[in-house]
Amino acid sequence: MIKACLRKDDYVSSTYRDHVHALSKGVSARKVMAELFGKKTGVCRGQGGSMHMFDKENGLLGGYAFIGEGIPVGLGAAFSCAYRRRVLGEEDCDSVAVNFFGDGTCNVGQFYESLNMASLYKLPCIFVVENNKWAIGMSHARATGSSFGDQEPHIYKKGNAFGMPGVHVDGMDVLKVREVAMEAIARARRGEGPTLIECETYRFRGHSLADPDELRSKEEKEHYQKRDPIPHLKDYMLKNGIATEEEINAIEKDVLAEVDDAVEFADESPKPDMSQLLENVFADPKGFGIAPDGRYRYEHPGFTSGTADIS
Ligand SMILES: Cc1ncc(C[n+]2csc(CCOP(=O)(O)OP(=O)(O)O)c2C)c(N)n1
Ligand SMILES: [Mg+2]
After folding, report:
1. Cα(264)–Cα(268) distance, rounded to whole angstroms?
2. What is the pTM of this model?
3. Whether residue 65 has its Cβ less than 6 Å from ligand 1
4. Whose CA is closest to atom 18 on ligand 1?
């Protein structure tokens, strides 16, 4: 929902939960699916995979498997926008950067360093914590120090410590999230600085296939499942005459058809060429490429020129 409030020239950084961020920032379902399949037609030509989607064209600064890594990258994008506007005099440069991450990531040092810089330089940066209460099997309440007595620690309150607004929002309420996001984005565009948004949410399944999900209570899961934002939004739209049941069914059908098409496209796409293997690995790839015939060329000062068969 937050990304629906952004422009194409805004930036987004993410964690390993980057599939939805890629899709909602404008990357096609075909390119996302092909990336998941490791195919040449993927958004990173099959070299990024599930957790490392990146797309310059749509301002997607990347998924990052290491939690917290995307935050300073997003901050850097916000810094460059502020620099272009304030120092280089590009008055129409009012892009913003939105960084998404989880509650567990708020105990990583880069989070605090980035809050500090964003506040110090009044950067057009928005920090969005998707607080689903758990970091794999570690509960937020157990992992995070709090000065609020026996209450759960509140991440949004950390914003104030750095001199920026901290807002708590019900992450299961699409329209409330939209309202908070629009305000934070407008504030950043006006040059008034960053906002920290804590969206309280939940994941309905284990962290990954490797998580047996035995630690979260049945009651807690049921509490949040009842508040699933998608059926709630559907109800709201029907009750308020925003869409009819037929229109919503048609949207659902279109989405399923798009997913089927993406799977078919990814399935039929070619694998990356062998020559891609070392591309984008070194800053100066000259001499480190793998020849299309699968032979490794080492033509670099300091190396004896020649070839070696690596197959
Ligand atoms: C720097 C780093 N340390 C540890 C991990 C292992 N790890 C993978 S996911 C995860 C939990 C992250 O939880 P949270 O930030 O709350 O995100 P969520 O999955 O709940 O959205 C951890 C610790 C990692 N990926 N990166
Ligand atoms: Mg979490």
Report:
1. 6
2. 0.91
3. yes
4. 102
